[in-house]
Predict the structure.
Amino acid sequence: MSQPTKLSVPFVSFRPMEKELDGDLRAAFDRVLQNSWYIEGREDEAFEAAFARYCGAAHCVGCGNGLDALVLILKAMGIGPGDEVIVPSNTFIATVLAVSYAGAAPVFVEPLLATYNIDPARIEAAVTPRTKAIIAVHLYGQCAQMDAINAIAKAHGLKVIEDAAQAHGATFQGRRAGSLGDAAAFSFYPGKNLGALGDAGCVTTNDPDLAQKVRALGNYGSDYKYHHIYKGQNSRLDELQAAFLAAKLPHLDRMNAERRRIAGRYCAGIRNPAVVLPTAAPGCEHVYHIFAVRCARRDALEAHLNACGIGTNKHYPTPIHRQGAYRELGLGPGALPLAEEISATELSLPMYYGMTDAQVQAVIDAVNSCKE
Ligand SMILES: *Cc1c(COP(=O)(O)O)cnc(C)c1O
């Protein structure tokens, strides 16, 4: 096997994207400054229309971030104290915090190891008379099995919410994330596949009443100025971030395709028998927000890669039920073995638009030269 190379590869870099879109981003900033209008204006309207069209959803409502998008959906659906919401046991904590913020109880369902997404075959056993919704997370950039999830939801009268924060542009049976359930939450955190230059998020849905209620809830519960029908919050997409997002959206498919090309090179080049590569499920077009591998001796692999100058990350090192914030659930070690297994073995390799071929090869060589 080849020797580890000295070329250093960061876990993520925005520089190639920023260099390429520099002129577009500056023009967006100038336009907003010229308009002298910063909240709820034409930039918001234009981006919301463009992103709804992109996702294949009838409506898009901007908001402050991905966590708020989830909370606003749950509240708009009337989900709150006394209700249960099914969530995957392995996800970013925001999915579960949203349920807590709404006042409802999260109920964890374990994933499929092959895709890291919620296992539809385990959902029915978690349904109780209090269950109101299922949050399907499209983890790492691959859609959950939405046909099976929607069928279970229909049989039990449940709502389906997509947490699409990692899946901008991902498709399931030819349809894009954001159009696959009753409503979807997106984050435009800078590191996401479509990222703002700060915090931002949105909700997509085909339901006009839900869209209207989400918009009101995110704007002090107001349907028109100084008229408040709900005890809402302040979570809006500002004009500047909307303008930046509108400048980046036309490049999303091309940048996702580049991520898929890098993932293809990783999958073809990595030949370390200790490393489990990600798989694309039938009907899914993965957008590789994260390129997640698993390795029994994950920490040794990580140390080796870092020593070779390769940046890595873990998504996520502690499962949610083992976090102090969720101590109240009383879920000890072994309570959710698949979530714990993924937390203990997952390692994320560098993945970003603009990685050079030499950098991709350096990652492959470093993984293959690990003797652990
Ligand atoms: C990033 C993320 C969120 C939260 O988005 P923010 O904009 O950071 O609030 C929610 N769910 C998942 C799966 C995420 O990756």
Q: What stands out?
A: Residues 65-67, 91-92, 94-95, 137, 163, 165-166, 187, 189, 199, 201 surround pyridoxal-5'-phosphate (CB under 6 Å). The chain has eleven helices and 15 strands. The chain has a mean pLDDT of 97. The first strand starts at residue 59 and ends at 63.
